[in-house]
TrEMBL record, chain A:
Sorted UniProt keywords: Amino-acid transport, ATP-binding, Cell membrane, Membrane, Nucleotide-binding, Transport
InterPro entries: AAA+_ATPase, ABC_ATPase_HisP-typ, ABC_transporter-like_ATP-bd, ABC_transporter-like_CS, MetN_ABC_transporter-like, P-loop_NTPase
Subcellular location: Cell membrane
Gene name of this polypeptide: glnQ_5
Membrane topology: Peripheral membrane protein
Keyword Cell membrane carried by entry: yes
GO molecular function: ABC-type amino acid transporter activity; ATP binding; ATP hydrolysis activity
Organism name: Pseudogemmobacter humi
Any GO CC annotation of this UniProt entry: plasma membrane
Protein name per its UniProtKB record: Glutamine transport ATP-binding protein GlnQ
Domain of life: Bacteria
TrEMBL record, chain B:
UniProt cross-references to InterPro entries, sorted A to Z: AA_ABC_transptr_permease_3TM, ArtM/GltK/GlnP/TcyL/YhdX-like, MetI-like, MetI-like_sf
Subcellular location: Cell inner membrane; Cell membrane
The UniProt record lists the keyword Transmembrane: yes
Protein name from the UniProt record: Inner membrane amino-acid ABC transporter permease protein YecS
Membrane topology according to the record: Multi-pass membrane protein
Transmembrane stretches, start-end: 20-42, 87-107, 186-204
Chain's gene name: yecS_2
Similarity remark: Belongs to the binding-protein-dependent transport system permease family. HisMQ subfamily.
ABC transmembrane type-1 domain residues: 18-207
Automatic annotation (TrEMBL), chain C:
Ranges annotated as spanning the membrane: 22-46, 156-173, 193-215
NCBIfam families in the cross-refs: HEQRo_perm_3TM
Gene source species: Pseudogemmobacter humi
Name used for this protein in its record: Inner membrane amino-acid ABC transporter permease protein YecS
All residue ranges annotated as the ABC transmembrane type-1 domain in the record: 22-211
Recorded name of the encoding gene: yecS_3
Record CDD domains: TM_PBP2
Gene Ontology cellular component annotations, sorted alphabetically: ATP-binding cassette (ABC) transporter complex
Membrane topology: Multi-pass membrane protein
Flavoprotein found in the keyword field: no
Protein family per UniProt: Belongs to the binding-protein-dependent transport system permease family. HisMQ subfamily.
Keyword field: Amino-acid transport, Cell membrane, Membrane, Transmembrane, Transmembrane helix, Transport
């Protein structure tokens, strides 16, 4: 379970998170929507401790992410994150990309890591690209590789930060399909996205962020069909 | 501050050495740059194939230790040709060609950095080759070439320490003379090193600043 | 045309000794590069560490190496350290002097290379649970070394050329040293140094060529 309690965060004079409270139970698929600068992406990077927070706390399975005593490297093994920019490691093959952290962080043997990497890459449909360098892959393929790379660490939670935003339109579908597949398998996921149709389809709940505040959170039918927050109504009207 | 046997005369010797370092550098950079620009433009103009012999010769200056270039030139001019040439003249001659070899590469790189489309645009407006070179290529290529050229000039100043081999007493050699006499290597070397550093460091920083500023737009 | 008697035969008789000298030259250049790269990586880590003291050490090293003559640096190692009662052999002075120079220039090249690697690479590595050290060694450093490969090749050529500077510390076993000793005995200056020049030329070309072949093998991405 991920528990976010009254989290505040500023970049200089700009307050990007103004007291967020949110609980994501295991098995839930939560999507987060909102305009740019709403703080939704910052929240994700705070959850796995890549960004410090100013006040409040975030608990993952009861462990406080920003406590000094917390071993962040260990905690991050539980929480996979995939970014808008896929960040393939260009000097490693697709297979090696997915193996690296398994060997270095989880101390798996090369054989074990290789088998797991192959399994995950097949899972995301890249079984035939194992020995290829990322520069030979399309953006969509690289993004799926990044997902496999995170999954290979056997995380309990997956965070997706606008993973389709940097892709050419025709490549968005294949990545969303991968996310749908993960959702159907029961992975706990928080997806920051601009894909409203996708959000409606896969989410258990949808949260709307506006100017650092979580303005509304509800199951998708409710949020999309009967939005209460005026800003949300405006946002939905603008995206259609 | 320092307990040293260094006299005013010794300081004059060092100052003369420093002056010689600057003089050799200035002459070599001046002639080397002119030659380098000529070589660079010619090389670009006639294309890599026809320029191959020139490229080959210039490359030799960059592939052989400067010390050997100086020894060879000195031996060739004074022993083989039996010319009466001072070490100073030999030093300046060799360093000028050495500078030209590097400068030609910098110039060529600068010209090549100017997009061909831009030059075609200039020519299509009716500009002559000379006008295109002067008004389009020169200002744009300079932006690319100047930071490297500053690095080259400083490199020549540092490399000029090698001309001691043809009996030119520049800064490092005069330091060495004093070390042998006074037996205070550390103190004297510090003075010598400071001299190079004080000239090179700010100019190198300035070059870095130009490079950064010009690469941004 | 010349009333100078070239005696190439006499000079060519010395070729075996000169080739032995060339081996020493290669040895010094290779060792100085190995030390130089290791130190340069360390200096780069110092600069990235955020520790003021460590980055001051790195910056000082780099600026002295880049802003004073290599000849001065070798001189300093040999005679300057002598002031502290540390007396090194000509071989060691030359090796350490060149390694010092290499490290300074390479550290600067590495810094430039790092600028070309996006921060998001480190971020991605950290998000997979890697420590900052693991992220640097496994993700950033290999890319840095690849980007800096051409400057590293150039520095290796420089290292070969710099071995000639051993002259100032009475180094007499490398190619330049051997040639000058032969010259002191026979006075065939032009012939001897012309042969040395050709050997140096071939050495630098061999380095450039093998670096190209190595790059093709190493960097397949």
């Amino acid at each position: 379970m991920i528990e976010i309690e009254n989290v505040r965060k500023s970049f200089g004079p700009l307050e990007v998170l103004k007291g967020i409270n949110l609980t994501v139970p295991r098995g839930e698929v939560l999507t987060v929507i909102g305009g740019s600068g709403s703080g939704k992406s910052t929240l994700l990077t705070c959850i796995n401790g890549l960004e410090p927070i100013d006040s409040g706390k975030i608990l993952v399975d009861g462990i406080e992410v920003h406590a000094k005593s917390t071993d962040l490297n260990k905690l991050r093994q539980k929480i996979g994150i995939v970014f808008q920019q896929w960040n393939a490691f260009p000097h490693l093959t697709v297979l090696e990309n997915v193996m690296l952290a398994q060997v270095k962080v989880l101390k798996r043997s090369k054989a074990e890591a290789g088998a797991e990497a192959e399994k995950q890459l097949k899972h995301v449909g890249l079984g035939d690209k194992l020995s290829v360098y990322p520069s030979r892959l399309s953006g969509g393929q690289q993004q799926r590789m990044a997902i496999a790379r995170a999954l290979a660490m056997s995380p309990d939670y997956m965070l997706f930060d606008e993973v389709t935003s940097a892709l050419d339109p025709q490549l968005v579908g294949e990545v969303l399909d991968t996310l749908r597949m993960l959702a159907s398998e029961g992975m706990t996921m928080i997806c920051v996205t601009h894909e409203m149709k996708f959000a409606r389809e896969v989410s258990d709940r949808v949260a709307f962020f506006h100017k650092g505040v979580m303005a509304e959170i509800a199951p998708p039918e409710e949020l999309f069909d009967a939005p209460k927050d005026p800003e949300l109504r405006q946002f939905l009207a603008a995206t259609h | 501050m320092f307990d040293t046997a260094l006299t005013v005369n010794d300081l004059i010797l060092l100052a003369k050495g420093a002056g010689m370092t600057l003089l050799v550098t200035a002459i070599s950079v001046f002639f080397g740059t002119i030659l380098g620009i000529v070589f660079g433009v010619v090389r670009y103009q006639i294309g890599p194939w026809w320029a191959a012999p020139m490229t080959f010769v210039l490359d030799i200056f960059r592939s052989i230790p400067l010390l050997i270039q100086l020894v060879l030139a000195n031996a060739f001019l004074t022993a083989v040709l039996k010319l009466k040439m001072s070490g100073f003249a030999v030093a300046c001659g060799v360093l000028s060609l050495y500078t030209a070899a590097y400068c030609a590469e910098i110039v060529r790189g600068g010209i090549e950095s100017v997009p061909l489309t831009l030059r075609r645009a200039a020519r299509s407006l009716g500009m002559s080759w000379g006008q295109d070179m002067r008004n389009i290529v020169l200002p744009l290529a300079t932006r690319v070439a100047l930071p490297s050229w500053i690095g080259l000039a400083l490199g020549v100043m540092k490399d000029s320490a090698l001309v001691y081999i043809v009996q030119v007493v520049e800064l490092l050699k005069s330091t060495q003379i004093l070390i042998t006499r006074l037996q205070e290597p550390l103190f004297l070397l510090m003075i010598c090193g400071m001299f190079y550093f004080v000239i090179s460091f700010p100019i190198a920083r300035f070059g870095g600043y130009l490079e950064k500023r010009w690469s941004n737009d | 045309m010349f009333n100078y008697n070239f005696r190439w035969n006499q000079a060519f008789n010395s070729l075996p000794q000169m080739l032995e000298g060339a081996l020493v030259t290669i040895e010094i250049a290779v060792l100085s590069m190995m030390i130089g790269i290791t130190v340069a990586i360390t200096l780069t880590v110092f600069r990235l560490s955020g520790n003021r003291f460590l980055s001051a050490i790195a910056t000082t090293w780099v600026e002295i190496a880049r802003n004073t003559p290599a000849l001065f640096q070798i001189y300093m190692v040999h005679f300057g350290l002598g002031g502290f009662g540390i007396h090194l052999s000509p071989y060691m002075s030359l090796l350490i002097g060149i390694a010092f120079n290499n490290a300074g220039y390479l550290a600067e090249n590495f810094r430039g290379a790092l600028k070309a690697i996006p921060d998001t690479q480190t971020r991605a590595a950290r998000s997979l649970g890697m420590s900052s050290g693991q992220a640097f060694t496994n993700v950033v450093m290999p890319q840095m070394l690849r980007i800096a490969f051409l400057p590293m090749t150039n520095q290796m050529v420089w290292a070969i050329l710099m071995t000639s500077l051993g002259a100032v510390v009475a180094m007499n076993t490398d190619l330049y040293g051997v040639t000058s000793e032969l010259n002191a005995r026979s006075f065939r200056t032009f012939e001897l140094f012309a042969i040395a020049a050709v050997i140096f030329y071939l050495l630098t070309k061999a380095i450039t060529l093998s670096a190209r072949l190595l790059a093709a093998r190493l960097f397949r991405y």
